Amino acid sequence: MQKVLHISVPIKTEIGEGLYIGHTGRVVISSLAVIGKNFNIAAGGTIGKENRGSREGAPIIGDNVWVGTNAYYRFSIEYINTDTQTAIDEMDKLLREAVRRCFQKDLEY
């Protein structure tokens, strides 16, 4: 499935019933993630893991969660609550943070 559809979900990943991947293309879910029922993930979505340090591990995600295009979650400390839509474009958050750090001001547009 990974080479043809560009979707990587290891067989040992703990996922409740009702997994829905709306589109093919760059979907990655860590084998360490724990995902509840009725999970929906869009193209570019990543549920990753941290390999070292105090944040080592993968996210725990509740039931009825939607993860939007290009959203990226990792670390054992993150928990996405039940009945949540996460359509946040993580690249926008990263861009804002990079601008804030470089120029010590908020990005406005």
Kindly describe this structure.
The chain is α/β, with parallel strands linked by helices and 109 residues long. The protein has a single domain (2-103), classed as UDP N-Acetylglucosamine Acyltransferase, domain 1 (3 Solenoid). The protein has two helices and twelve strands, in the order H-E-E-E-E-E-E-E-E-E-E-E-E-H. It has a four-stranded parallel β-sheet. The radius of gyration is 15 Å and the shape is globular. The N and C termini lie far apart (40 Å). The model has no long low-confidence stretch (mean pLDDT 76).
Number of helical runs? 2
* Biggest sheet overview: 4 strands, parallel
Helix content: 10-25%
Domain module count: 1
Uncertain residue segments: none
β-strand percent reads: 15-25%
Would you count the extended β strands for me? 12
The Rg value, from CA coordinates, equals 15 Å
CATH third-level topology: UDP N-Acetylglucosamine Acyltransferase, domain 1
What are its keywords?
109 residues, alpha/beta, UDP N-Acetylglucosamine Acyltransferase, domain 1, four-stranded parallel β-sheet, globular
Which helices and strands occur, and which strands form pairs?
Elements: H1 2-5, E1 7-8, E2 14-15, E3 20-21, E4 27-29, E5 34-35, E6 40-41, E7 46-47, E8 60-61, E9 65-67, E10 72-73, E11 79-80, E12 84-86, H2 90-103
Parallel strand pairs: 1-4, 2-5, 3-6, 4-7, 5-8, 6-9, 7-10, 8-11, 9-12
Report a brief summary of the structure:
The chain is α/β, with parallel strands linked by helices. 17% of the residues lie in helices and 25% in strands.
